[in-house]
Amino acid sequence: MAVAVVAVSGILTATFVSSGGKGTADASTEINQFVAIQNVRPNVQNPASGPGASKGSFTVDCGTNGNGKFSPDNPVAQPGIKNGAEHVHDFVGNLAITANSSNADLDASATTCKNGDKSSYFWPVVRIDKTVRSGADTQRALAATTPMVTCPSVRNRLPAVPAQAKRAVDNRLAELDRGYAAANERMATGKGRIDARLNSSVLADLRDQRTALIKGISDSIAAAGGGRTSGMISLVECDTNYDGMHVAMRHTVASVKAGLAANQQVQCPTVRDKLPGIPTAALDEVNRGLTELDRQISEANERLVTTRGQGGKNFVDNAILGPLKAKRTAVLDRISIAISRRAARPQGLEKLAGCTVTDQAPNQNGPGNQNGGAAVPSAPAALPDPQGPNLELPNNTGGIVRPASVRIEYRGNAISKVVPMPKFLRALTGDAKPISRGPANARATWACSGFTDRLSDKYPICPPGQQVQRVQDFPGCWDGKNIDSTNHRDHVAFADTRTGACKQGFAAIPQLRITLSYDIPRDVQTKGQYALDSFPEEDHNPFSDHNDFINVNSAQTMQRIATCINKGKTCR
Fold it and tell me: Would 456 disulfide with which of 130, 201, 324, 446, CB 3.0-4.6 Å?
């Protein structure tokens, strides 16, 4: 188990005692977090290919986020939590995706990928900030912060709950609320410091409790005739948060006008948690209505991306929000009628039709009670939306550097053929929180063009004419059954670094590698003026680099990818 010891004054440094990963993780962006790439020893080892190796590759061109889809959502690690990443991500591929997108929404989306791949690929942005960063500011903010947990909402992601199951479901939702509150009582003992051992213990206990309760909710709904719920496993994992640090650090963006937000997102009142128990005969119709409401929001979010800069001042109201309200009104009426045929008509659903966008109303989805219940009094203020032309957040400031190139490549396995990965598979690589969770899952990703034999856990200083690069490899083995897991990791795994073999029970899949290349002026590199967006407690730690992915390739396309790789071809 990793143990973090963090001083309350001076540089923010966590020292870890761990059986694996990096020995120390420094969350400052002092110049000692930068290294000349020539001083990094070659460390990339590729297993020797065996006779059954799959040696091909398949490359996808999804652009470099030229459409400007930026968001602090993380739909893989923090589904359903608006601004949950607390830092801005570049997105390529799927245009509709937000923290709340369903698989059906993703499948219906448009994409930036030239071959029609609707997958979502996203990573934290890099910024250039020539102002002096103050580790003391971060320390002061940490000293006044009580760490908490953040959990995906369960109430707001449920299907229609049959009347016969309503009491059982409500009881378990209340238990989820109590578990959340108890976890935060334990987290409060870590006020003013970062204790990775405490954090890990709290999250593990909460995960076990939520796994049982969420399975119980699913079983209750199924037993009452509601059918099996899908995607519930994604709602199990909670996360640590040091959101209170934002309050002390908000002065870093205080001069920015709030009206200039990152990609606007539609915000609509939740409906699922306002519904009564549904008569069995009305379940199918109500669920169709709920799915349609989700899709309407997804379509509106996609339009916000594709119509940026179009129309005048009232374009969003007239062309997007107005029609959305009309469509939601019709669906909500159909839901009410379906219920009223066999039970009392629910009152007030029509009031849930109107929506806003992120720059028209304050964020109402603060940490609070993440199961959708009443807010927790000790919860920190709602997370801010990115602001200004540079899409800044507290302590994540400066101009965003868009990648000069993004190479998305699916690769083979050193000793075996690959099987197609399943549609809607979730995967992530690296760890956004090696300080607060420990470094076991963190990965060195930083390099320079021309130095493919080495990766660094520090920001590289490259020779003149060479690009700064981030090389991010995803797990290349799959358990053969699941598209997600309670911690978003256990259903996939990395192959053995020496042999290339997948562990027992896992099959090789096309391994995703994303290489991001940046043209960063060399004087900016040598002065330590570029850095990664990060969670507040990481303070731009280069070892917190990470990347996330949802596979929305069609079965036919994924089969084509696997066949190309297995035949040893180079395809695109």
Answer: 446
Residue at 349: amino acid letter: L
User: Which residues neighbour 134 within 8 Å (Cβ) at sequence distance 6 or greater?
Assistant: none
Residue 3 CB contacts under 8 Å (≥ 6 apart), including other chains = 16, 17, 18, 196, 197
Residues 6+ apart with CB under 8 A from 361: 267
* 472 backbone dihedrals φ, ψ, rounded to 5°: -120, 105
Spatial distance between the Cα atoms of 338 and 318, rounded to a whole number of angstroms = 30
Question: What pLDDT, on the 0 to 100 scale, is given for residue 309?
Answer: 78
- Per-residue confidence (pLDDT) for residue 249, from 0 to 100: 66
Vertex 255: Cα angle to 249 and 260 (nearest 5): 105
Cα–Cα distance for residue pair 448/429, rounded to 1 Å: 20
pLDDT for the residue 379:
45
Residues comprising the chain, all counted: 572
Instruction: Render pLDDT for 47-64 as a digit per residue (tens, 0 to 9).
Output: 999 999 999 999 999 999
Residue 246 has a pLDDT of: 75
Quote the Cα angle for 428-432-433, to 5°.
130
pLDDT, position 313: 75
- Cα 378 from chain centroid (whole Å): 25
Which residue type sits at 259? G
pTM of the model: 0.89
Give residue 567's pLDDT. 98
Instruction: Using the structure block, give the residue that is written with the tokens 């509106």.
Output: 300
Roughly what angle, to the nearest 10 degrees, separates helices 283-306 and 322-340?
170
Q: Which residues contact 182 (CB under 8 A, 6 or more apart)?
A: none
- For the CA atoms of 70, 71, 72, 73, what is the dihedral angle to 10 degrees? -140
Under-70 pLDDT residues of the chain? 1-30, 132-135, 247-263, 359-382
Q: CB neighbours of 11 closer than 8 A, spacing ≥ 6? A: 26, 28, 30, 135
pLDDT of the residue at 244: 84
Any alpha helices (H) in 267-341, and if so which ranges? 283-306, 315, 322-340
Q: Which residues contact 206 (CB under 8 A, 6 or more apart)?
A: 149, 151, 179, 180, 183, 238
Measure the CA–CA gap between 289 and 274, rounded to whole angstroms. 14
Q: Are 282 and 341 in contact (CB under 8 A)?
A: yes
